[in-house]
Predict the 3D structure of the following.
Amino acid sequence: MDPTELYDEAARERLVVEPPKRVDAPVRAPFERDRARVVHAASSRRLAAKTQVVGPQSDDFVRNRLTHSLEVAQVARDLSRALGSQPDIAETAALAHDLGHPPFGHNGERALAAVAEPCGGFEGNAQTLRLLTRLEAKTVDAEGRSAGLNLTRATLDACTKYPWERAAAGPDARKFGVYADERAVFTWLRDQTPGRRLCLEAQVMDLADDVAYSVHDVEDGVVAGRLDLTDVDRPAVWETLRHWYLPDARDDDLDDVLDGLRAVGTWPTAPYDGSRRHLAALKNLTSDLIGRFCGDVQAATFAAGAGPFVRHDADLVLPERTVLEIAVLKGLAAHYVMQAADRVAALEHQRELLTELVAALLGRGPDALDRPFADDWHDAPDDAARLRVVVDQVASLTDASAVARHARMVS
């Protein structure tokens, strides 16, 4: 069966009805059109110049947000196809999952979250939904308002990693997926959806993101000379892992998990030396780890039920061992790369730069904004809405353009 047939008309529906395509145009399914719209979006192109872990200007080898998103998309597509769901939906969600990230990655997200407090905060996933449904120019409604890329309900649902507003976020208010401005479209895309439950395709996207960045951030750390997989300071790494990811993780369990990963045949037995031989061995390790994680999740999901594995008819099953294995890799990258001493000073400077840039743009007003954001400024009813416009502008910038605009505007 074609997986598309498992998705009903409501899943294929778009918020704004679009005219039929030319009769001589290539025939594409609705979800294929969604994927093309994200691929061609300006926000996707900008990801090439936004930080993943190490800034894209610092090394030709390390990943940026675009290459990371492409890798997440490949993992998501393969796992979705293996489960029998529509792979275009999970792939599109993966391609879109980081569109809302501002300059300097998660560090920039923290800076904008602080300055955006008066207008409801900032969260990269909520910004992604805002881009897809408002800021990216593709479709307008009957009143001439932007409807963003006007993706199908199933695809937008798959892009929504945190399907709740900030007010409903609970104890961890940093993680939410919807601003108040997008409440109407959020209500539409979650029509008849139970509570906070993620659709299966969103769960695939989320796992693919975890798998990709846990494995690839370690790979980048090894190549950058920051991490030696043959010499791990376990107590220090486990402390970082607990602080960043799993506060209740036990040393004995983590030791056992790392020993299991070290038993993978391609785990290095000698320090990385930059040779083609070691590069090839490292790439084979990343491939083996991705296959291990996805294979274990696929087997556990099949064992839990007969499917179909689409939308809200099933859930992805993550074995506890797999969760710990991914966390160990994330802990390695966090300890040796993300909290390295030379990075701490740079991170503080990045946050100061974005904070100053927001203040400068607010002071200058629409004359300092790109045309679409200047139009939004003129339509804004109050100071909070104007702050949101400025935050949208800054979030749209790349690392380099944020630095350049700050240099021009802040003496």
Summary: The chain has two domains: 3-189, 200-343. The mean pLDDT is 92. The domain at 3-189 is CATH 1.10.3210.10 (Hypothetical protein af1432).
